[in-house]
Fold:
Amino acid sequence: MKTKSIFSSRNLPMYVTICLFFLMFGLGAVSFKGFFSLQNFLNLFIDNAYLIIIGVGMTFVIISGGIDLSVGSVLALSTMLASSLLEKSHMDPILVIPIVLLVGISLGLFMGFLIQKFDLPPFIITLAGLYLARGLCYVISLDTIGITNAFWQKAAQSQINIGDSFISPSVVIALVVFFGGIFISRNTKFGRTVFAIGGNEQSALLMGLPVARTKIWLYGFSGFCSSLAGIVFTFYTQSGYALNGKGMEMDAIAAVVIGGTLLTGGVGSMVGTLFGVFIFGTIQLLIAFQGTLNSWWTRIAIGFLVFVFCFLQRVFETRKVAKEAPEPSAKAGAKAAEA
Amino acid sequence: MPDIAPIVEMKRINKVFPGVRALSDVNFRLFKGEVHAIMGQNGAGKSTLVKVLTGVYKQDSGEMLLEGRPIRPDSPLAAQKLGINTVYQEVNLCLNLSVAENIFIGREPMKLGSIDWKTMNRKAAEVLLRLNIKIDVTRTLSSYSIAIQQMVAIARVLDSSAKVLILDEPTSSLDEGEVEQLFKVIRKLRDEGLAILFITHFLDQTYQISDRITVLKNGTFVGEYMTEKLPKLELIAKMLGKELSEFNYSATGEAKRDAKRDAERAAAAHGSSAETMLRAEGLGRHGSIAPFDLDLHKGDVLGLAGLLGSGRTEMARLLFGIDSADRGDILVKGKKTTLGSPHSAMMKGLGFCSEDRKNEGIFAELSIRENIILALQAKRGAFRYLTKGKQLEIADKLIKDLAIKTPNSDNEIRQLSGGNQQKVMLARWLATDPSILILDEPTRGIDVGAKLEIMEQILNLSREGLGVIFISSEFEEVIRCSTRVAVLKDKAKVAELQGEDMTERGIMQTIAGGK
Amino acid sequence: MAWWKSLTRKKIFWPLIALGVLMLFNLFFTPNFFRFEIKEGHLYGNVIDILKNGAPIMLLAVGLTLVIATKGIDISVGSIVAISAGVVAMLIGGDLHGVPKYPIPYAMAAALVVSVMCGMWNGMLVARIGMQPVIATLILLVAGRGIAMVTTNAMIVWLYAKPFALLGQGYLLGLPFSIFIVAGLVLMTVIITRRTALGLFIESVGINPTAARFTGINAKNLIFWVYTFCGFCAGVSGLVVCSTVMSADGNNAGVGYEMDAILAVVLGGTSMNGGKFYLVGSMVGALIVQTLTTTIYAFGVPPEIAQVVKALVVWIVSLLQSKTFRSMFLGMFGKKELSV
Structure:
């Protein structure tokens, strides 16, 4: 009876996303000369490598039913930290990278600890984290710090050729994180526990899963992704700036939601998120190619897409509930009677 | 019957919660290879006892033995490790995961640091096959019926270490075929030597599946019986805390004592020419309550009698527009209407006191006065605000009328005792000047004095011309207050009793008789 | 000691104490903090500045108090501020001689209408579609910033129409005009919520949504209008912000305001879990936030870094409201009662 429809409705948003991407890319190819090329497609990876990385972390957080609003600020903090350590303290990149990652992870773990241990709402804790990290950027420096380090410049300039086209080392990092994300989400106990928590936290506890530990590490992982994305970000900009990644939390959430991950948790995929990022990138490309539109339309378009996908999610949810309606209410009645 | 040493033995268990003695000196034994049912009314202590066994609560005193060795699990997890596993009524699995994962999550077979999905799926299929179930284990759990979900939950706990399986109301959302399927599995597991504790409020199912019954009443141990030697009627009597022989006397005795009430009843019964306040024709909701007819006249007190889970609350929810009916009609004062929400029911003169005072009734942080006037205010709308003086007047009058014990109507309601909170609920609806009042277990969890006062109020209201629907687990109370009694069983209305048939024994027989 | 007990029971007590402590700190450590000057018949000084600069947050806190009382949240208020500022600025126009494109009252009305529509959008998503409030308002938080930028063509619009400066820079009876706007809005809200049953209904929905439904309260409508009202408040706040700096910067106007406003509400005694709300408490909370900011500035710390302190305060306040933390805290210090 209901079996097939729910199953397919789970993955439907992801398929819609993939189709939407090809549709939009196709639209660009038809409308603008020079839009359709392998390089332009690869540019989606190159330009959005950091967003893919953040998106992987965010996907985990949202699958667990939480949210992390601090990602953009943590990215900015990482760019500041990296550039300041490199330029002002003249530290070796081999030390700089682990330190930056460690700071990101620690911040994430601390927020996870507050959320899990004291049962606080994730959004308020990570919203405060957003401002904390942004503020810490200014503590490091009020100005842009340019990076002149040789390793960084090499990372920025080197290209990996694919036929006539190329990708950057950042893309390789992003792909490693992406495939790592797929592996963790599908084939590790941690990943499956995240899904279980998102499905039903109470059940996960009763099934004896390490809910507390997983939830704390989840935010730690998101912090790791954000700080790694920060390092990748500096490969592009060759500088640290406190206003980097402003509003990026929304870009990441948008990519995740557009990719078919349920905001209520429990369902989601890395592949979906990747295509969510592609859609985000394509909108930017389209607006750039179009030329006359203000780049801020990207924000509006993204907001609109998030709305549409959230709306669809709600429709699917309510339809599902409507189908199962008699059971929950009967259960509720019986439960109330027993209480 | 294997009458050797029990696998689980609980001796003289005591548990006190603030203000309530939940268990006093309760004994319980569970044997290998049997299905054991615990029966009792609301507040009998069934769930507390099970929660002590599964490590959710710790007993204050008393001993618990598993295979002769004392145990003291301090969490459900610890109990699981000892081999005591529970499958709850709301299936505690993750609907978003696959069937195989739900069985193995937390102890997945690993290969080279990666989950070995192939082995896991194969093993899951094997475990389910042991329960005679053949399904695709790679699909999400949500794509299967509740019955299958129950089986998966059972499969999860069925590894070699499982000694005791507790099924907490597993059948409450299953249809007949599914129940039979579940029972087959239970019998199979029993025959394999598992000790099964079965908790249900379905009387017939208890007789279908259980070998032994323990009866509790108000936190005390009534007795342990072999199912085949305990007639249904006697079981019901024991759940009500009486011996069957008592009823013959009490029924007649009561009738004599309350002659005045009888006269009123007769008047009400004959005066069925009196205006019909509320009428339901074939009203029902799938999975909640079977279609029923109902008539409530002016001055009537219609009692709804039935055991826990018999559909009393579901009926009340339909009549107050909380759940929407999917069949049948409802008529208020002769006019066919739809009650789409509690608001529309309220505007048509209905009132409803929920049995779940804490979650569905009171606003803990608001004052008594605010709690009382809230429904009236909702009826008037936000902009016809009752002045504070008017509020005080209404609240103080009702506090006096209902003898609510509080020094001040501005105190927070959470400071009141349960009985007084219940009176505030009643006051809230009386303030709206309703013509029909639905009271779901208004006498539960409150002391005897308050009970009597509330029942007195119900009688007064009916004399003033209200139509009252009164729900209670205590048949005695129902009979004392009602002009007629509708008997419910297994989510359906099975009979309506009045006059001489309206006795505790009559109700019990109706329930025991079944269809 | 009975009077003391009843005093400490009052919800407004602790916010006032916190404000007092902050003020006291400034009295000793910030030179000239309490110096007042009268220039051209207007009152000047740090304290006046706090009132004046705190006005936008206070205005936001009014609407947000009601939203939080229903167990909701609106993190889009900062963006609505930018939209409102953008709309009013575009309609008045950047004419160098101060000649408004459209009459100033019309421009203001239009900005408020747009803000109310933003509020309705949020209300629709939360109450009708049933989205989680954080997500629903997150959409406008981001898209709203885009809308503001598109409205102003991604430029900073400077205004020269003198009369408009009254809102944010003007004085009345020697006091900043914006204080009167705040007072007016608070008074209006108090009347709307406390002279009608709306306040009681809002609290009921926040305390126990199921019981509210069973009592015949239409929670959906109520929640819708509460978000709408919050949009209105943000619109007013946007007008004041725009008038204060006589410019509209779609990119930076109102950034981070949601944080300050939420903090103000929570500091004022309204719980994030919904229920009883305290409008005057929220105002005191906003003053605490503003005083904190001013104090930090007074020490020569750049405004951007002040965020760090605020973020820490948010974490601490959240902890104090957490049941788990309280019981842990109580466990550590015996049975001492904690009445935060």
User: Anything to note?
Assistant: Chain B touches chain C at residues 320, 322, 341-343, 345-347, 352, 354, 359-366, 370, 374-375, 377-383, 385-386, 428 (CB under 8 Å). Residues 367-433 of chain B form one domain. Chain B has 19 helices and 22 strands. The two ends of chain B are 30 Å apart (CA to CA).
